[in-house]
């Protein structure tokens, strides 16, 4: 077993305040949380004991919307207007992707996830076998969703991927079927996703109401918002997860609530692309599960859940003209428990006995975490990746004190990613 | 001399693109920038040679508006509405400040500044002798401005501070006279600052147009905006620096331009307190010097200029509904050259021979800086304090690879700050 002692634990359960307790990890699971008796300590066999030195252990962060392999487009042609950026720069580059490129660009993203305390990402992209390899070889959870668009011919590939990537003997790999977005898909494809949801009794996913023009276009095409349309075809019959949700109507919010849909908030991307500020407070108050995502590096450009947590908090202040619009604890919940729920990772959400050991150690002995007036607020308002001392996924330490334990050294990943992106230019 | 070699230099002069060059530091000054000849290398005597390993050297960041010692209020009672927060929580705590407390709370801030690549802060607070001690003992530049409010009785203290803290033999210490803000000062005090500016031919400073209600109140009281009022009394006769500038009129912007006033943008604070988004693009286009500031930790809560750079960029996007509203290079300029100009640190702005050696080394070998498509964009859009490898002020290395060289260890500063804040609660 691995023992973490002499620190604080934020379980993200119950009252949610840091408490003095030990955490023991056995295999991939949390075996014990609390103050052990002398007898318990005597009986335990530890292969590793980590003195937290007063630092904090908490659930790892979960990135509920991203396009990881788009690391190759970081700082590439930013600053162009959106349409030119997409058509003149992004699409021609994406056309050159292949398995090798996806593999290394995803590995690069995983380095950044781990250094910022994230152990799972809900990824929408292409060449999924390469993505599965990059993640599973790194020990990082691989949760994918459909990036498909176009006409109903895409349905076969979506159904095949659903069957292929959801195997009981591969708990690290999951696939949620769905659409890229309403505006990139034919009516038949959208209806087909509804049929697929009913056939397999599965949740579905899509980009939803990211921009005002997307919603206006959908209303023009179908007389309905994207949310109403997806519900009408049955795509929400078994729940699901929708990305961005910047321009939801009250009726849309009611549908999310009724159907148990997770809304994934991507504040950095929505700022950078000038999409707007989602009404997270309204969704939260309606009882909708809210998760947080970075979106891809082309539209962020970081893959840093601390930045998303900070933005989630302060953007609601400016939206509501209220310096106390949204509670820091609810932000922390979205980044941990909410994200796990979005990915249907029910056993990766909190620090409790029997749960998966997906956890991080936050270094409280950095100037941005001092003094200790309120630890959750410190994390949300002034925390950052420099406070991540250790990242563990399924009981394995993947990142610690700036070093990675994922099979490859960062320099090799950087060199391969740079070579491959230079070849594409 | 200290030699930095085998890396890139972003001088922030001329075309502003990273170039392969060495930087040599002699005493407190930059002695050489470029590719040395064999002869130059042979003649030079180096006490230290640092292999940059491909990393980047650039001017340090300058924090042009802060209240450093307010670290003690980090995460203290955030989440209350503004008025209650101020009157019930902040003011009663501030009343308990003294010299010892200011000293340690400022030291805590300096740790955070150095870890995020900042070597100078324009500080508005109280107990200035303690602030001077905390800064100068740490090797950090001490630029202060008046925090005074109330009636004309404050003028004596302001004039005394101006004379006391501006000595030719203490280049590390400066004091800019001025006001806390129009709405906290009597008409006589405001007029007195104008007279002081003329008497000493000095720039002045103040919080200006931070909130819409502040501007409305000023117009009600004086029939003028705060900017018009300050100009009318002569406070801008010799330039100056104004903080926040969220709600400037076009006429105000014209005055800033005509009078050579620096506008200090504090995007994180303006978001958190729901003050609004300053029109930085309009100011920049008008040719006004724009600098960046964190504001105090009570209203931020971090003291991280990378966060401010990121926010400066994306908030203009959302304000202008344009994904390409503001150039990343102009953000970098504001955080370096613009900040130096705001503080009248004319010799601390760029990497050039004869300038003060106030510089940082950016670690490009972290996942958030890869691949290298565009370094300035990487820094602004995805950079952070984890990329700061070294911070040098006036030729002295104050921070390197997570370790501080400022006379005291962080743990001692943390312990003193925690003890003192606990005594105040």
What does this structure look like?
2 copies of one chain form a homodimer. With 425 residues, the first copy, chain A, is of the alpha/beta class. Chain A folds into 2 domains: 107 residues, Urease, subunit C, domain 1 (Roll); 282 residues, TIM Barrel (Alpha-Beta Barrel). In chain A, 39% of the residues lie in helices and 21% in strands. A 7-stranded mixed β-sheet of chain A has the order 3-2-7-17-18-19-20, with helices on one face. In chain A, strands 12-13-14-15-16 form a 5-stranded parallel β-sheet. In chain A, strands 5-4-1-6 form a 4-stranded mixed β-sheet, with no helix packed on it. In chain A, α3 packs parallel to α4, α12 crosses α13 and α12 packs across α14. The longest helix of chain A is centred in the first third of the chain and has 17 residues. Chain A is globular and about 70 Å long.
In short:
Chain A has helices at residues 38-43, 82-94, 99-115, 128-138, 154-165, 187-200, 212-222, 226-232, 250-259, 267-272, 280-285, 305-320, 328-342, 375-382, 410-424, and strands spanning 2-5, 8-9, 19-20, 22-26, 29-34, 48-51, 56-59, 61-66, 118-124, 141-145, 173-176, 178-181, 204-208, 240-244, 261-265, 290-292, 359-362, 388-393, 396-400, 403-404.
């Amino acid at each position: 077993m691995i023992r973490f002692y002499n620190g604080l634990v934020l379980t993200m359960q119950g009252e949610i305040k840091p408490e003095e307790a030990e955490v023991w990890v056995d295999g991939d699971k949390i075996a014990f949380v609390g103050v052990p008796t002398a007898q318990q300590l005597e009986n335990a066999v530890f292969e590793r004991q980590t003195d937290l030195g007063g630092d904090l252990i908490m659930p790892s962060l979960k990135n509920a919307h991203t396009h990881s392999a788009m690391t190759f487009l970081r700082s590439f042609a930013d600053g162009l207007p959106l349409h030119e950026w997409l058509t003149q720069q992004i699409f021609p580059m994406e056309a050159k992707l292949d398995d090798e490129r996806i593999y290394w660009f995803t590995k690069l993203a995983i380095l950044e996830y781990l250094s910022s305390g994230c152990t799972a990402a809900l990824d929408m992209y292409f060449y999924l076998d390469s993505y599965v390899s990059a993640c599973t070889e790194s020990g990082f959870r691989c949760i994918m969703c459909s990036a498909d668009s176009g006409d109903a011919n895409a349905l076969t590939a979506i159904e095949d991927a659903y069957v292929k990537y959801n195997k009981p003997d591969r708990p690290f790999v999951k696939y949620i079927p769905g659409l890229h977005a309403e505006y990139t898909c034919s009516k038949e494809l959208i209806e087909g996703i509804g049929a697929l949801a009913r056939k397999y009794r599965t949740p579905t996913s899509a980009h939803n109401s990211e921009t005002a023009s997307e919603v206006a276009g959908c209303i023009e095409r179908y007389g309905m918002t994207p949310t109403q349309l997806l519900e009408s075809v049955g795509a929400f019959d078994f729940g699901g997860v929708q990305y961005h949700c910047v321009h939801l109507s009250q009726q849309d919010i009611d549908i999310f609530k009724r159907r148990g849909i997770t809304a994934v908030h991507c504040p950095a991307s929505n700022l950078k692309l000038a999409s707007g500020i989602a009404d997270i407070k309204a969704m939260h108050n309606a009882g909708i599960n809210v998760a947080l995502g970075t979106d891809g590096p082309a539209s962020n450009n970081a893959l840093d859940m601390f930045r998303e947590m900070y933005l989630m908090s302060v953007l609601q202040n400016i939206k509501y003209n209220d310096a106390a619009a949204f509670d820091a604890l609810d932000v922390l919940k979205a980044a941990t428990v909410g994200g796990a729920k979005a990915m249907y990772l029910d056993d990766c959400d909190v620090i409790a006995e029997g749960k998966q050991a997906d956890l991080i150690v936050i270094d409280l002995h950095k100037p941005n975490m001092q003094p200790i007036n309120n630890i959750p607020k410190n994390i949300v308002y002034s925390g950052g990746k420099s406070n991540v001392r250790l990242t563990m996924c399924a009981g394995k330490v993947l990142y610690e004190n700036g070093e990675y334990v994922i099979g490859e050294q960062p320099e090799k990943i950087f060199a391969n990613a740079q070579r491959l992106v230079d070849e594409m230019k």
